[in-house]
Structures are given as structure tokens and as C-alpha cells.
Write a structure and sequence with these properties.
- By secondary structure, this protein is α+β, with helices and mostly antiparallel strands.
- The protein has a single domain, classed as Glutaredoxin (3-Layer(aba) Sandwich).
- About 25% of the residues lie in helices and about 20% in strands.
- It contains 5 helices and 9 strands; from the N terminus they run βββααβαβαββββα.
- The strands form 2 sheets. A 7-stranded mixed β-sheet has the order 2-1-5-4-3-8-9.
Length: about 180
């Protein structure tokens, strides 16, 4: 039986890179634009209509993430060509990266699926994952799913991150008990 290693809350987020549409490299978990935290949203790819809907909905919460000082990055295993085609349906202003490798998916502890047919996609792909990385480079919030139907509700997520980020709340990383 194959085993999978999942990242644990409080762990240092691994240094992984993907590529943005302009060809530049982006480091997952490294905030951009002056933010001190980053939310990395791993999505299945252009073949997934639920991902398209979720990414477009994420755009409507961009300001709430900014207000909480959390940068947004989305990434998938799609190719550059697949991302270009997907952007015909995804209308977002946050960066989307492509080229997540199967080894990187395993490093993140993501569930990986095999395409059902060539019509779905031409490569194995990650199921959804969310990694919120704090200013120390540690995993503060993690959510990993094995299917596209289970993802964090963005309103609750942004309200929760705003509460966590409020220094008056002294809210630690949760779920760190090792067993």
C-alpha cells in the first residue's frame, strides 16, 4: 500500500516554484506585492468547471484577502497552452501559475488523480489544496481535498484569516499536536 505524506500545520512550507504566463518563475508560499502572508490555491486545471467557478469567485474576494494582508496565488499542473485556454473563462487579476509537477504535488501532500480520458486532460493532476503561509514561511492554514466538491467557503476563509491576523486575538497555529 502506497503512503502519502501530508504537510502539517506549523511546518516550514517547502520551497517550490512554478511558472507564470509571462514566463517568470514564482515561488509558492512567498508573498508578493508587499503582503506578509500568501494563500496558495492548488486547482485541478482547465478541464474542471468547478475550478473555473472557484477561481472566478476567488477574484471577488481578492480585496478581503488584501485587507487581511494575504497575497493570492493559484497553481495547477496544466501546461502554458492549457492555462492560456483556461484564461478565456477565468477572469482574475491575481497570478495563476502552471507546470506543477507530480513530484511537487507529492511534496505538498496533495491527492493526485489520473485523467478519466484524453478529453479530460493529458496529465495526472492535483486535487484541490489550500496552503496559507505566514510571514515566517510556516504553514498556518492547510486544507487538502480528494475531489473538487470540497473546498473552503471563501467568505468564511477571509473572515477567519482577518480574525487570525488581528494581533489582539493572539491566535496560534492550530492542529500542531504531534502524535
Amino acid at each position: 500500500m502506497a503512503t502519502s505524506t501530508k504537510l502539517r500545520a506549523g511546518d516550514a512550507f517547502p520551497s517550490l516554484e512554478a511558472v507564470k504566463l509571462d514566463g517568470s518563475s514564482v515561488t509558492l508560499g512567498k508573498p508578493q506585492g508587499g503582503a506578509t502572508w500568501q494563500a496558495v490555491f492548488v486547482y485541478r486545471g482547465k478541464h474542471c468547471p468547478l475550478c473555473t467557478k472557484y477561481l472566478n469567485e476567488l477574484e471577488t474576494f481578492k480585496q478581503a484577502f488584501q485587507d487581511a494582508d494575504v497575497d493570492i496565488l493559484a497553481v495547477s499542473a496544466d501546461s502554458k497552452e492549457q492555462l492560456e485556454q483556461h484564461l478565456e473563462k477565468v477572469q482574475v487579476s491575481f497570478p495563476i501559475a502552471y507546470g506543477l509537477t507530480e513530484e511537487q504535488m507529492k511534496t505538498l501532500g496533495l491527492y493526485i488523480s489520473i485523467p478519466r480520458s484524453e478529453q479530460e486532460t493529458d496529465h495526472n493532476f492535483a486535487e484541490p489544496g489550500l496552503f496559507v503561509v505566514n510571514e515566517e514561511g510556516n504553514l498556518h492554514v492547510v486544507d487538502i481535498s480528494n475531489n473538487p466538491f470540497v473546498r473552503p467557503e471563501l467568505g468564511a476563509l477571509t473572515r477567519g484569516l482577518a480574525w487570525i491576523r488581528d494581533p489582539d486575538n493572539h491566535y496560534p497555529i492550530r492542529g500542531t499536536l504531534k502524535y
